[in-house]
Amino acid sequence: MAKPETTVGQVLLARIGAQAVVLAELDDAVRADEPDAVHRMRVACRRLRSALRTFRRLFTAGATDELVAELRWLAAALGGARDREVLAARLAAEARELPAECAPQRVAAALERWGEAEYRKVWPEVVAALDSPRRRALGEALATLLADPPLRPRAARGALRELSRFAAREQHRTAERVRAALAAAPEERDRALHEARKAAKRARYAGETAAPAAVARAERFARRMKDVQEVLGEHQDAVVAASTLAAQAASGGEPFGYGALYGRQLATEGAARERLPEVWRRAGKRKLTRFG
Question: In terms of pTM, does the model score above 0.85?
Answer without folding.
Answer: yes
